[in-house]
């Protein structure tokens, strides 16, 4: 559920939509985009609004200034003794608490979400990036599962996403040591999709390729893969059929077929699922 507390504060997150692509910027560059309560509320609101926008084809999440996100703004959070409880409280009927939402809600946005990282991507910032479908990074971006430094464990949905991307021994090592590692190492571990000289340009090129495909099929593919990756074989077989029925025979699927035979085919329509 969106939280209105962010609306009365200086904007922590900006959203620019151009050519059906939403660019979400963590807008606290002077504080290295560290996560204070206002940033948590703003990210919750932003992800919820984008999840309901059927006009967009993709989302990019980036950080303003020198870094992607330095993680939790610990000093700001502990100023109010009520803040930790607010972060960990799960509202009735919701899957995740406020802290978890800033990483997990990107998975619930139907369209592809790409995190573009540079500078540093620590702690909560890493968990935000892991919640995206893809991560494009500079080679020299520094990553860390930083929570151990504060005597904590990663609890912003990172355990849901990390298990799909890397081996358990790597996850344990990074979580227990908190050591910093480069974009090149992150790619080796499976935590980064591609290392690029210009990750923003590379992400836009990738999105351009996605735009040549049916928006319904893209959304269905994300949903199916997210739901089936760690499910039982029987559950996956059922999910495949259920998901295929949502797209088969619809306008965008017909257009996708005709594009294999006719150069100037009809355009795709706004996604129907």
Key structural traits:
9 strands; 6-stranded mixed β-sheet; globular; 3-stranded mixed β-sheet; alpha/beta; Enoyl-CoA_hydra_C; 273 residues; 2 domains; isomerase; Enoyl-CoA hydratase; 2-enoyl-CoA Hydratase, Chain A, domain 1; isomerase activity
Secondary-structure-derived class = alpha/beta
The biggest beta sheet is recorded as: 6 strands, mixed
- The name of the CATH architecture of the largest domain is Alpha-Beta Complex
Output the radius of gyration. 19 Å
How many strands in all?
9
Note the total helix count: 12
Q: Give the N-to-C terminal Cα separation.
A: 21 Å
What is the topological layout?
Blueprint: E1 13-18, E2 21-26, H1 37-51, E3 58-63, H2 74-78, H3 83-88, H4 98-108, E4 113-117, E5 120-122, H5 124-131, E6 134-137, E7 142-144, H6 158-162, H7 168-177, E8 181-182, H8 183-189, E9 194-195, H9 199-210, H10 215-228, H11 233-247, H12 251-258
Parallel strand pairs: 2-3, 3-4, 4-6, 5-7, 6-9
Antiparallel strand pairs: 1-2, 7-8
Helix pairs in contact: 1-4, 4-5, 10-11
Write structural notes for this entry.
- The protein has 273 residues and is α/β, with parallel strands linked by helices.
- The protein has two domains: 4-210, 2-enoyl-CoA Hydratase, Chain A, domain 1 (Alpha-Beta Complex); 215-258.
- Helices cover 42% and strands 14% of the residues.
- The chain contains twelve helices and nine strands.
- It has helices at 37-51, 74-78, 83-88, 98-108, 124-131, 158-162, 168-177, 183-189, 199-210, 215-228, 233-247, 251-258, and strands spanning 13-18, 21-26, 58-63, 113-117, 120-122, 134-137, 142-144, 181-182, 194-195.
- The strands form two sheets. A six-stranded mixed β-sheet has the order 1-2-3-4-6-9, with helices on both faces. Strands 5-7-8 form a three-stranded mixed β-sheet.
- Strand 1 (13-18) and strand 2 (21-26) form a beta hairpin.
- It is globular and about 60 Å long.
- It starts with 12 loop residues before the first strand and ends in a 15-residue tail after the last helix.
């Amino acid at each position: 559920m969106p939280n209105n507390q962010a609306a009365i504060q200086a904007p922590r997150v900006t959203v620019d939509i151009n050519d059906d692509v939403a660019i979400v910027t963590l807008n606290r560059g002077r504080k290295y985009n560290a996560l204070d309560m206002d940033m948590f509320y703003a990210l919750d609101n932003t992800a919820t609004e984008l999840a309901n926008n059927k006009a967009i084809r993709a989302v990019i999440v980036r950080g303003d200034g020198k870094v992607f996100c330095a993680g939790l703004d610990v000093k700001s959070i502990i100023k109010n003794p009520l803040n930790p409880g607010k972060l960990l409280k799960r509202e009735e009927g919701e899957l995740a608490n406020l802290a978890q939402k800033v990483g997990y809600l990107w998975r619930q946005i139907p369209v592809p979400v790409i995190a573009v990282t540079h500078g540093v991507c620590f702690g909560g910032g890493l968990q935000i990036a892991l919640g995206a479908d893809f991560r494009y990074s500079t080679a020299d971006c520094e990553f860390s599962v930083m929570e151990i430094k504060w005597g904590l464990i990663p609890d912003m949905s990172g355990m849901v996403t990390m298990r799909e991307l890397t081996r358990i021994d790597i996850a344990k090592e990074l979580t227990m040591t908190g050591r910093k590692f480069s974009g090149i190492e992150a790619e080796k571990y499976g935590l980064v999709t591609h290392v690029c000289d210009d990750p923003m340009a590379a992400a836009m090129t990738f999105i351009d390729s996605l735009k040549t495909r049916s928006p319904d099929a893209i959304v269905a593919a994300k949903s199916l893969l997210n739901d089936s990756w760690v499910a039982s074989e029987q559950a996956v077989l059922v999910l495949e059929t259920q998901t295929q029925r949502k797209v088969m025979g619809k306008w965008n699927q017909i257009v996708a077929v005709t594009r294999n035979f006719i150069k100037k085919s009809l355009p795709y329509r706004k996604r129907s699922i």
